[in-house]
Amino acid sequence: MSENLSVRRNVVVPRTSIKLAAAVVAVGLAVSACGSLRWGAAAITGNDRITTGTLTAQVANLNSAYSADKAKGVKPQRPQSQEAQQVLTWLILFDVYNKMAAQHGITVSLADQQKARAAYQAEAKSNNLSVDEYWSAGGALPPDLLPQLYQAAAIEGALADKIDGGKTPKTTAGQNAVDSKISHYQCLAAKNLGITVNPQYGVYDYSGFDVVLVPPTLAADPTPSSTPAVRQTPPC
Question: Which CATH number applies to 31-212: 1.10.3470, 1.20.1250, 1.10.287, 1.10.4030?
Answer without folding.
Answer: 1.10.4030
